[in-house]
Structures are given as C-alpha cells and as structure tokens.
Amino acid sequence: MAEDTAHVHIRPWRVEDVDALYRLVRESHASLSRWLAWCHADYGLDDARRWIDHSLASWQARSAFPFAVVDAGAETLLGSTGLSQLDDSQKVANLGYWVGTPFVGQGIATEAARQAARFGFDQLGLQRILVRVLPDNHASLAVARKLGARYESTVQDPIHGHGAQDILVHALTASDIP
C-alpha cells in the first residue's frame, strides 16, 4: 500500500530504512524526546532495527500499520505516521505521527497523517480514528485540528514514564478526511 500527494508519500517501513531512521531520530532528538518515550538520549542503530522489525511484524499480524513518511521524489525519510491499538470490534484505532526536525513546519505531518487516516478508513474499514495528544504539544494539536479531528475528552494516561498525565483525545470519522 502506498499513497502520494504532492510531495509526501507514506509506505510500510523497509529493512533498508534502518540507517536513515537512526540518523533522523538522532538529529531530531531534542524536539522529539519530550513527546515520544522511545526517543531517548541513547537511541542507537539497534533501536532503529527493533522498530523496523516490529513494524514489519505488525503489518504481517495486522495489529498495527506503521508507515515511513518519505519525500515522493527522492525517497528521503521525513518521519513516521501510523495506526496502532486497533480495536476490530469497535472499528477504531489510534493515529500517531512525527516529523524530523529539518522538516517541521512544512505541512508534512498533516499530509502524512491524512494519508494514514484515509488508509484506515478505506483499507481497514475503521469507523473512528483517535488522535491522543499531550495538552502542551501545540504542533501535534495543530495537526489534529488541520485533519478535522474533533476534541472528545481529556483522559488520564500513563505516558512517557512519568505516571498519569492528561491526554487530549480527538476523533476523526471518514467524512472528516477529504
């Protein structure tokens, strides 16, 4: 499965993405680590390999659908998006996304997340997609709003190893995504 828009393409992760993933995460550590627990100071090639292996296994098991976000022309790695925590009985999943520091502010996260959401509705038959965001993650909140996600609730969730924190839950339906 692969979708394109003007300059962003999402596709399943590949084994050969390991080095590019490692480099982009290391380069983006300062901006990502506050929001993403896996982005720690010692993130190394083994972490990137484990993520790729996990991604491939998740696709095969149909338990999650992580995507590499790449430049549509050069295949340069820009970030990641994906659907996780799928609940087949409720037809719902969580949508996540991140973009490397050099690519922030270019609409890439919104475009990639839109493609992942469209995949969820069209290919997986989801009814709802949730976007869960820390209240002070303004960039991620902006992406959720640009997607058309509506605020639903604030829940307490353990996140980032710091105990329960408020998480803003937004939801999308198929009609929200053009």
TrEMBL record:
The protein, known as: Ribosomal-protein-serine acetyltransferase
InterPro entries: Acyl_CoA_acyltransferase, GNAT_dom, Ribosomal_N-acetyltransferase
Superkingdom as given in the UniProt entry: Bacteria
Keyword Transferase: yes
UniProt-recorded Gene Ontology molecular function terms: protein N-terminal-serine acetyltransferase activity; protein-N-terminal-alanine acetyltransferase activity
Transferase keyword on record: yes
One GO CC term on file: cytoplasm
PANTHER family in UniProt: ACETYLTRANSFERASE, RIBOSOMAL-PROTEIN-SERINE ACETYLTRANSFERASE
Residue span, N-acetyltransferase domain: 8-175
Taxonomic source organism: Solilutibacter tolerans
Keyword terms of this UniProt record: Transferase
Cross-referenced Pfam families: Acetyltransf_3
